[in-house]
Amino acid sequence: MSFPDGLRREHPGLGHGTAILLAYRGSIAHGTYEPSSEPGSIDDKDAIGIAVPGLDHYIGQRQFGSRGTVEIVRDPWDIVVYEARKAIHLLAKGNPNVLAMLWLERPLYIDLTPPGERLLEARDLFATRSTFYPFMGYARSQLMKMERGAFRGYLGEKRKRLVEQYGYDTKNAAHLIRLLRMGVEFLRDGELQVRRPDAPELLAIKHGEWTLERVKVEAERLCRRAEDAHAASTLPDQPNPDAINALTVAVIGEALGLR
Length: 259
Fold this sequence. Notes:
There is one protein chain. About 50% of the residues lie in helices and about 10% in strands. The chain is α+β, with helices and mostly antiparallel strands. The protein has two domains: about 5-125 and about 235-255, 2-Layer Sandwich (Beta Polymerase, domain 2); about 130-230. Strand 3 and strand 4 (about 75-85) form a beta hairpin. The longest helix is centred in the last third of the chain and has 21 residues, at about 210-230. The chain is globular.
């Protein structure tokens, strides 16, 4: 799978010299991606990046996207790029989607510069017990969407048909189970298993092979396991703010050639 050069030319945040890290995310990263040529495919090609724009964004009035975020949606690509301070803030808050880009298999990094490597080397700073809350929050969000449906984007009609066929959004259900399992593992081990060893089972859920009742029973079981893992976790309670600040200065300074 190759990343389109046309998108780099059109969006400076994706270009060399600005993006310090660009990687695949979502189903590609989890090992559950099904190309559009497959019958019933409901997957985008998802990517995530971190950018360090010019010095004028830090000591001037320029802004990077909307509040430090640029979103690019072009069939079949769904890309989000965060300015470095915004990205590190989200990492410190335990955002599951952003945390995942620090634990990817090497082939999934499209671009990785020395400042990006510095972030990967410091990833243990973000492994804390406090990640329990965002993982549970994201899982609950998927649980709510699972039955209500959220049919946006060019794949919206396909997902609407899934709900009509199975009685619930099977893709949201797969996200729900994956998030809960990843949360339990992270609290226990301090490592994110982004490439899922349970990918075949997650694909079965996405294909509607689980009943809604089975999904709910498994989700309830995993919620209890997550609570137990949170109580027993030996990870630090919270990220170290001084270490996070020092990392932010180092990453941006190196990217701008100031260090």
